[in-house]
Amino acid sequence: MGKFAFIIHPIELSDIYRKFGFLRYFPQKIVEALIKRMSPFKVSEITGIKSPYGETKGWFVTCPLTSRQMVELPLDFVLNKIIQAGKVGQELGADIIGLGAMTSVVGDAGITIAKNLEAAVTTGNSYTVATALEGTKKAAQLMDIDLEKAEVLVVGATGSIGSAAARILARECRYLTLLARDERKLDYLARQIMKESGLAVRCTSNI
C-alpha cells in the first residue's frame, strides 16, 4: 500500500507553545514573525496501520502558520508554505498528501497545491462523500425506502461535497432535487448531470 503524509498546522499560538515551550515567554508578534519564517517539518511518524489489503505508514507534517495567519497573510505566501510542506511529505516517501484543517480551505481548495506536487493530493472530501452516501443508503434500507423510487434532495448541492454526491446519486435514483443558493451554479450542475447520466433534475434556491 502507498505511504501518506498529512499536513497539519497550529490552530493558535498555544499549539506552538506545546511544541516550543520557551516561546511562551516572547511577545505574540515576535512568535508570529518567527513561525512565519519557519520551514515545514515532520512532526511524527504513524505506523502499524493495517487493513485486509495490506499495511502502510505515514507522517504528520506541520505547516507552521496559525489559522489567523493563513487568512490574513498574502495567499501566494500561504500556498507556497503549504506546497513546501507537501514536498517534505514527498521526500519522506508519501504517495498521497492529505490537507488538514485550514490547508484544505485557503485558495482553491487544493488545486494549486496539487499542481505543484508529484504526489496525489486530497482534502478528505472524497471520504466525506463516500461515508455520506453509505449512511444515506443504510438509513433508507432501515426505513424500507427504495432510493431508486424515492424523491432525493441534496442540500448544498453546488459545494464540492454536495455536487459529487449529486452526480453519484443521479445514477441511482429517478427523482433528484438540488438545493443551493447560487442559481447559476445549480443550472450548471443540472446540465452536467444530464450530460453524464441522462437524468433531468429539479433545482431550487428556495431555502
Describe the structure.
- It holds the Pfam family Polysacc_synt_2.
- Residues 152-195 form the Polysaccharide biosynthesis protein CapD-like domain.
- InterPro entries: NAD(P)-bd_dom_sf (IPR036291), Polysac_CapD-like (IPR003869).
- This is Shikimate dehydrogenase.
- The chain is an alpha/beta fold.
- It is built from 8 helices and 8 strands; from the N terminus they run βααββααβαβαβαβαβ.
- The chain folds into 2 domains: 4-123, Rossmann fold (3-Layer(aba) Sandwich); 126-204, NAD(P)-binding Rossmann-like Domain (Rossmann fold, 3-Layer(aba) Sandwich), CATH 3.40.50.
- Helices cover 43% and strands 22% of the residues.
- A 5-stranded mixed β-sheet has the order 2-3-1-4-5, covered by helices on one side. A 3-stranded parallel β-sheet has the order 6-7-8, covered by helices on one side.
- The protein is elongated, with a radius of gyration of 21 Å.
- The mean pLDDT is 92.
